[in-house]
Design brief:
This protein has 6 helices and 3 strands. With 128 residues, it is mostly helical. A 3-stranded antiparallel sheet has the order 1-3-2. A hairpin with a 2-residue loop joins strand 2 (46-49) and strand 3 (52-57). The longest helix is centred in the middle third of the chain and has 23 residues, at 64-86.
């Protein structure tokens, strides 16, 4: 399955993903060569643009998406814990949008940034 998408992460989600990626790199030598190759591809496709972590996925390697999904799952859970610990309600709202984006990505291979970028319902109604 070939697809192209760019995953964009900000805030606690970006921080948590970076930590997950560092942890994976520490275990790299213990991984089979095929998994090492996937991690190398992921690392090659990572960039930081204006505080947003961007991960470009090609979808040409069958191991790529399961690994990325696993990393994003751990990172999202970590980010939620960080936001709860900091009592950052804005970040928790953003993470809820990331969860919706993530579910869509798992089902369609498309990372839709419009979900995260959409204003909150209160903001859209002129509330907060």
């Amino acid at each position: 399955m070939h697809y192209r998408t760019i995953i964009e992460l900000k805030g606690f989600f970006r921080e948590a993903f970076n930590q997950v990626f560092e942890d994976i790199e520490l275990l790299l030598e213990e991984m089979p060569q095929s998994r090492q190759d996937v991690v190398a591809d992921i690392k090659r496709n990572l960039s930081l643009e204006d505080g947003t972590l961007q991960l470009g996925l090609e979808g040409t390697n069958k191991q790529e998406k399961p690994l990325v999904v696993e990393m994003l799952t751990v990172a999202l859970n970590g980010a939620k814990e960080m936001a709860k610990a900091e009592e950052d309600t804005q970040e928790l709202k953003r993470l809820t949008k990331y969860e919706q984006t993530f579910v869509l990505f798992k089902n369609t291979n498309n990372w839709d940034t419009s979900i995260v970028e959409a204003p909150d319902e209160e903001e859209a109604e002129g509330g907060v």
